[in-house]
Amino acid sequence: MPMKAFFTGFLLAAVLFAGGSYLYIHRHEESDKAVNKAPAVRYHCPMHPTYTSDHPGDCPICGMKLVPIEPASPSPDSVPESMVPGYASVTIPADRIQSMGISTAEVRRMSLDQNFRTFGKVTYDERKIHHVHTRFEGFIEDLYVNYTGQYVKKGQPLFSVYSPELYATQNEYLLALRARKKLQPNSFGSTVDLVEAARERLALWGIGDSELRELERTRTPSRALRINSPVSGYVIARTATHGLKVSPADNLYDIVDLSTVWVLADIYEVNLPLVKLGQTATVQLDYKPGESWKGKVVFIDPTVDPATRTVKARLEFPNPDGELKPEMYAHVVIGGSSGTGIGIPDSAVISTGERNIVFVAKGEGTFEPREVLLGVHVRNLYEIKEGLSEGERVVTGANFLLDSESKLKAATSSSSQHQHGS
Questions:
Q1: Which fold, 131-256?
Q2: CA 112 to CA 378: how far, in whole Å?
Q3: Could you tell me which residues are beta bridge partners of residue 383?
Q4: 398: left (phi over 0), alpha (psi -120 to 50) or beta
Q5: Phi and psi dihedrals of 164, rounded to 5?
Q6: C-alpha distances in Å from residue 316, one per residue of 114, 126, 255, 274, 322
Q7: Closest Cα partner for 80 from 314, 405, 419?
Q8: What would you measure as the largest C-alpha separation in the chain, in angstroms?
Q9: Which DSSP letter does residue 167 get?
Q10: Quick one: how far is CA 81 from the chain centroid?
């Protein structure tokens, strides 16, 4: 009996020892696995979220301080939902909000006075550019206006031209007049027809009634005919020179009347609904600060410039003193109708090319991405058609940092969910 009891006790002790050893080893293995599964802290650059590091420091791209990447929970319920694909709501600690420079503005109802500013360039009124030609061939003998930019008055001589054909036609006219005087008062014949034919030829060549009366009075043909300015204005181009042989195809002078000028203004597509024909417009020039000139919209180009994505609007301005000079750059204000709507600063909007994103402050450091539909752009403000409500607050400063953080968190969450599901 004693031997049997000893043997039984020995077996019981061995079983207890083996069980304790197994529990000890199993607990240590589980602990090691837990330690190995604990994610290591990684860091990334707020400006360049694609750059990550396993230790703190500075971004080698921009020199900004690296910040810890918040570990994503494998549970999808822990990630705030976002209605914008590719974005996630982010929560920023209070101390980081200040250091990141995050600022917000309230979405509020405001007066949307739809006057907007743009730039333009002063140019000629194309309807008031006059080209000077001769109606016959000849040679320039005297040049009275001989430089570009010279101001001329209507009727002022520009040059004189000698034309053998014109000279001969004047002689024919004088001969026809002499022959008509020799006829009886009541007789009719071919002589009268020659007078009218010569007169008509001279008129078609630009010889006016005053020149014809002078020719009839003096009975002497003019060797050279003076060509006068058809309008008052400035010479903007000249090809006439002394001794030049000219023909009706030659453009000898361009003279422009600057009493009215145009301003060609660039209108961006977003502002096109604000521009109407007949609208009031004002311009200001850098060389005369504080002064403005009033005009109106007279034409809107039907096509968009593919390089600048703007439409040219033609504004007409009276210019009696010649202060608006062609090729000057002008600051343009075009008036529009007034109205009200909810608006936000344009700095709050992040445009991706396909959509417009803002970040809404939800409180306690949480910022939610929101897609919005924009209206008119007025005085550094955007009208909001859809996506925001009056009284909400949107991020206006450092929103590009939130944009990077939101995209990174959305990508990390998506990857984590995929691994959890697999």
A1: OB fold (Dihydrolipoamide Acetyltransferase, E2P) (2.40.50)
A2: 7
A3: 343
A4: left
A5: -55, -40
A6: 20, 11, 19, 18, 14
A7: 405
A8: 185
A9: H
A10: 37
Q: What is the DSSP string of 246-283?
A: E-TT---EEEE--SEEEEEEEEEGGGGGG--TT-EEEE
- Top CATH class of 116-125+258-334 equals mainly beta
Question: Where exactly does CATH 2.40.50.100 map onto the chain?
Answer: 131-256
Residue 78, pLDDT above cutoff 50: no
- Name the segment(s) of the chain with CATH classification 2.40.420.20: 82-112+340-406
**Residues of each domain in the chain carrying CATH 2.40.30.170:** 116-125+258-334
2-35 pLDDT tens trace: 555 555 555 555 545 555 555 454 555 554 544 4
Q: Which of 82-86, 126-130, 305-309 has the lowest mean pLDDT?
A: 82-86
Residue 422 tokens read as 């697999």
Structure tokens at 137: 């061939």
Look up residue 329 and give its amino acid.
Y
Region 82-112+340-406: CATH code = 2.40.420.20
Contact 355, 347 (CB under 8 A): no
Distance (Å, whole) CA 224 – CA 209: 17
- The tokens of 311 are what? 């439409």
Query: Contact 124/261 with Cβ under 8 angstroms?
Result: yes
DSSP string, 28-41: HHHHHHHHHHSPPP
pLDDT tens digits for 163-209?
A: 998 888 888 888 888 887 776 555 555 555 788 888 888 888 888 78
Q: How many CB atoms lie within 10 A of CB 247?
A: 11
The tens digit of pLDDT for each residue in 322-337 reads: 999 999 999 999 975 5
The 10s digit of each residue's pLDDT in 277-286 is 999 999 999 9
Rounded Cα distance between 205 and 247, Å, is: 12
Q: What is the strand order of the sheet 67-68 is part of?
A: 52-53, 43-44, 67-68
- Which residue matches tokens 């009975």? 219
Residues paired with residue 129 on neighbouring β-strands, in sequence order: 256
